[in-house]
Amino acid sequence: MNSADAELLSPAFIRNIASRREAIAHEWYLAISSMSSLIPDRTGAIYQFSELADRIIVFLTEPTQPEQEARGIGEGLAELHCIHPGVIDITWKLWTRQLTDVANPAELAILYPRLVALICVLTSGYGDKTREIALAEQEQIRQALVFNVEKVSQELREYQLHLEEILDERTRELRAKEEQYRLITETSMLGIFQLDSSGSIIFANDALCNMLGYSHEELLGGSLRQLFHPDELPRVEQLIAKFYAVGSLTAEFKFRHKDGHPVDSVTRAVAGPMNNGQRTHTGYIADVTDEKQMEAALRQSEVTLRALIDNTDDT
Questions:
Q1: Helix axis angle, 21-33 to 86-102, nearest 10°
Q2: What is 10-30 written as a DSSP string?
Q3: CA distance 312 to 315
Q4: Do 83 and 130 contact (CB within 8 A), yes or no?
Q5: Cys bridge to 74: 26, 50, 125, 259, which one at CB 3.0-4.6 A?
Q6: What is the pLDDT of residues 194-233, one digit of tens each?
């Protein structure tokens, strides 16, 4: 612009356009904030729009302005986070209207080409900066996602290790209990057995095998009913029915040894919990044959002694 052009921009125009900077900044802010997310708060954003308005007024009223200043104004818009394609159109229309309201036709002839040049270069700076900001934000989001994934993965790994520790501890406890149970069953003088829901023997310890004279192979899979002495059969079914009704049973039974002789016992059985529709029953058999024989011998001795005493009194 030459000196003659500068003279056409009257001091009154310059004062008028400068006096409108706050109103322009406010209108500019409202128009853009309706379609774009602005990072600063309202007061901070309007202040920054006021600074941009000052720069545009200087650009339009000074005889010469470098293109870099126009790019800087566009970058300033982008840095406000005015990331929307309508921002440039709003800026063009707003400033065109402001200049039309204040300038006379001669001044508009000077200002309009400058505004066109400003918007063209401003758009370039705005576009470059918005791409830069978008890429930076995408990288921040990517890093945040990576961090969150790594954090969650680490938390999952730690949780998995914690579960594995619990599982190992529970496994050790279970094995210890299994070993304890094995020692008890192997060293017990009681005959220990387990039955499935149909009454078939699924476990028998050594003491039970020795007590009744059978091997494990002979007992496993067989029915406990077959082991009762024939003298017990009339009451066995009644007692078994009672066991299924109440879930436990304690009774004296005679079992039949493999060689045929009777084995007096006290038998205790309890029903286990349901598991997949099946129930396991556990019990023991205590051999009291010797005790019974001793009791019988004692009773016989008492009878013999009483008879002797009676005979002595008679004489």
A1: 150
A2: -HHHHHHHHHTHHHHHHHHHH
A3: 5
A4: yes
A5: 125
A6: 888 888 898 889 888 988 999 989 988 888 888 888 888 8
